[in-house]
Amino acid sequence: MKENEIEKLNKKIIEEHEDQEIVLGNGSVDSSMILIGEAPGAKEVEAKLPFVGQAGKYLEEFLHVLELDRKELYITNTVKFRPTKISSKTGGKINRAPSKKEIENFKGYLFDEIEIIQPQVIITLGNVPLKTITGNEKDKIGELHGKAIKVNIKDREYKVFPLYHPAAVIYRRELKEVYIEDLKKLKKFKEKA
Ligand code: URA
């Protein structure tokens, strides 16, 4: 049932973005947890799977602390294509943050995914999915990480657990300990949920 609904949604996303290389959500549609990133990178586009590149390594750590297998999660992104710009240094394509308009264009699909999966816990990675889910531009991951908040999506209340984006942990080593502490808090929260 959920499987069919996700399949239908995915078909729609692909059809409506024929000119883009789309990376769809992946994992168990029956999962009680949905993990939402920002947007796929080059490796993800190549593999057509979310979180397989450098950020995927942190995902493994995430799964290890939570004692979970990747298959037990549903993993997706706020924006389902790779936003790029040309590097002035190398002349090659590099990642950039998705624009407000791009986020707005893809938000409906994300909310549809949540409505279909109806997870017990929504885990957002970084500011982009956090602000998209809460609808509040003023929300900041630096203030909201590591504690559960409640959010209404399509007339249903969900528990949202914001975490730093793994890329932030890669660039800011001092966040590593905070990130691991947050994961432990999430594990406890999940056991109670
Ligand atoms: N970062 C994200 O936010 N999503 C991915 O799929 C990969 C890296």
How would you describe what is shown here?
- With 193 residues, this protein is of the alpha/beta class.
- It has one domain (2-192): Uracil-DNA Glycosylase, subunit E.
- The protein is built from 8 helices and 8 strands; from the N terminus they run αββααβββαβααββαα.
- It has helices spanning 2-16, 42-47, 54-66, 100-117, 127-134, 141-144, 166-171, 175-192, and strands at residues 26-27, 33-37, 74-77, 84-86, 93-95, 121-125, 149-153, 156-163.
- It has a 6-stranded mixed sheet with strand order 1-3-2-6-8-7. The chain has a two-stranded antiparallel sheet with strand order 4-5.
- The protein starts with a helix and ends with a helix.
- Uracil (URA) is lined by residues 37-41, 44, 50-51, 53, 55, 77.
Detail the topology: elements first, then pairings:
Blueprint: H1 2-16, E1 26-27, E2 33-37, H2 42-47, H3 54-66, E3 74-77, E4 84-86, E5 93-95, H4 100-117, E6 121-125, H5 127-134, H6 141-144, E7 149-153, E8 156-163, H7 166-171, H8 175-192
Parallel strand pairs: 2-3, 2-6, 6-8
Antiparallel strand pairs: 1-3, 4-5, 7-8
Helix pairs in contact: 1-4
Residues 37-41, 44, 50-51, 53, 55, 77 line the site of uracil.
Strand order of the largest sheet: 1-3-2-6-8-7
What's the CATH topology name?
Uracil-DNA Glycosylase, subunit E
How many strand elements? 8
**Which molecules other than protein and nucleic acid are bound?**
uracil
Q: How many helices does DSSP assign?
A: 8
Main sheet makeup: 6 strands, mixed
Helix percent reads 40-55%
Gyration radius (Cα, Å) is 16 Å
Structure class: alpha/beta
Distance between the termini: 24 Å
